From TrEMBL:
GO terms for cellular component: cytosol. CDD domains: cupin_RmlC. This is dTDP-4-dehydrorhamnose 3,5-epimerase. Catalyzes the epimerization of the C3' and C5'positions of dTDP-6-deoxy-D-xylo-4-hexulose, forming dTDP-6-deoxy-L-lyxo-4-hexulose. It comes from the Bacteria. One of its GO terms (biological process) is polysaccharide biosynthetic process. The active site is at residues 62, 132. It holds the Pfam family dTDP_sugar_isom. SUPFAM superfamilies: RmlC-like cupins. Its EC number is 5.1.3.13. The gene is rfbC. It catalyses: dTDP-4-dehydro-6-deoxy-alpha-D-glucose = dTDP-4-dehydro-beta-L-rhamnose. It is an enzyme of class 5 (isomerase).
Length: 184
């Protein structure tokens, strides 16, 4: 596995190696030993899988408050998505900054999003699936969100506001300036 870091501390792009021949390929998508050497002492407790049918579906930007904050290792086993992580750690020099990467079945890459970040994605084609392992169980009372199209974030989404397909919940999320200090 190859691990690449970003200018925003904590985020890691994971690129599993694929071993192939005329029949196809094989890949280890997770190795605890090498992942822990890169990301730290991480333990996954839940594995989630989502499906989005239409192109232009936006999910997020979601996070959970402490003590139920979640780290997420995200991959796209079907389709292509623009995957986004926003730094919500108020003590971080990159507070409010984001990373956006294309995850796809073709590239096999994964994004490690530690606790302290909001996470979301936009489908770049129809019939996309995301699979992600998380470090804490889902907790409705700790579930929060950040508005996907907040101008303060400067995210270059591949869909216009008019064409984005969102849940009612995601249309009502707070702006960054309204969040307050959700992570130290």
């Amino acid at each position: 596995m190859d691990y690449s870091r970003f200018d925003i501390a904590g985020l890691v792009l994971v690129t599993p190696k694929r071993h192939g021949d005329e029949r196809g390929w094989f890949s280890e998508v997770f190795r605890e030993d090498s992942f822990r050497r890169t990301a730290g002492d991480v333990q996954f407790v839940q594995h989630n899988h989502s499906y989005s049918k239409p192109k232009g579906t936006v999910r997020g930007l979601h996070f959970q408050l402490a003590p139920k904050a979640q780290g997420k290792l995200v991959r796209c086993p079907r389709g292509r998505v623009l995957d986004v992580a926003v730094d919500l750690r108020t003590s971080s020099p990159t507070y409010g900054s984001h990373v956006a990467v294309e995850l796809s079945a073709a590239n096999g890459q994964q994004l490690w999003v530690p606790a302290g970040f909001a996470h979301g994605f936009c489908t770049l084609e129809e019939d996309c699936e995301l699979a992600y392992m998380v470090t804490n169980y889902y907790s409705p009372e700790h579930d929060r969100g950040l508005r996907w199209n907040d101008p303060a974030l400067g995210i270059d989404w591949p869909v216009s506001e008019a064409d984005a397909i969102l849940s009612p919940k995601d249309t009502r999320q707070l702006l960054l300036a309204e969040l307050g200090a959700v992570f130290a």
